[in-house]
Design brief:
Elements (H helix, E strand, L loop, with lengths): L25 H25 L4 E5 L1 H10 L2 H6 E6 L7 H15 L1
Helix pairs in contact: 1-2
Length: 107
């Protein structure tokens, strides 16, 4: 398992207004979409540079869906696992454990 990079997703600013936990604003959708574009571009460059044959994606479901929608055929073929899980700010050891467990279940 080789970690290419860790990128933190943009954090939506807290407002004085009370919103339900499930409500997603256009601003949040735009931020997710923009972040997905950045990630896929970076992933494509890194995959070409290091010739990564297998790719594991781990992100919250909305971001994971946005990333999947932007993957080209070549990158999509390399994805061996898409883990709908938030691993932001987790220690690398925990990330490796979570990914290896999910890979073991997928096999």
């Amino acid at each position: 398992l080789r970690l290419i990079d860790r990128m933190d997703a943009p954090v939506a600013p807290l407002t004085a207004e009370t919103r339900s936990a499930n409500e997603v604003t256009d601003r949040e959708r735009l931020a997710t979409s923009s972040f997905a574009v950045q990630l896929v571009g970076r992933l494509a460059r890194e995959a070409a540079r290091v010739r990564a044959e297998r790719i594991v994606l781990a992100a919250p479901t909305p971001l994971l869906d946005a990333i999947r929608a932007r993957l080209d055929e070549e990158l999509r073929a390399r994805v061996v696992l898409a883990l709908p899980k938030t691993l932001t700010r987790q220690p690398l050891g925990k990330i490796v454990t979570e990914v290896n467990a999910a890979l073991g279940q997928a096999a």
